[in-house]
Specification:
With 90 residues, this protein is mostly helical. The protein is built from six helices and two strands; from the N terminus they run H-E-E-H-H-H-H-H. It has a single domain, classed as Orthogonal Bundle (Endonuclease III, domain 1). 51% of the residues lie in helices and 4% in strands.
Length: 90
């Protein structure tokens, strides 16, 4: 399945990846959280999208939001956890 790399490629060039495989590049929440919103805007994100990406990355990086744990909870609980983050809507 083809993927749109118009956003991925500049993001990877701006925020260094932790792991690279032949078929994938992994950007950890910690790396994304370390990038400020101004840096994220340089890849074409709006201020609002950059702020949301930064906020969500920080929440995951610090353990405030555990994405693995959310897989095992009811949908409503997972949704409530995520929409409590600034920039995430229902």
């Amino acid at each position: 399945m083809p993927t749109d790399t118009s956003l991925c490629r500049p993001l990877i060039e701006t925020v260094p990846a932790e792991q690279t495989r032949a078929d994938a590049v992994v950007l950890s929440p910690q790396r994304l959280a370390a990038a400020d919103t101004d840096t994220l805007c340089t890849i074409g994100l709006t201020n609002a999208k950059a702020a949301t990406l930064h906020t969500v990355s920080q929440a995951v990086a610090t353990g405030r939001v555990d994405l693995d744990a959310l897989r095992g909870v009811p949908t409503e609980e997972a949704e409530a956890t995520l929409v409590a983050l600034p920039g995430i809507g229902p």
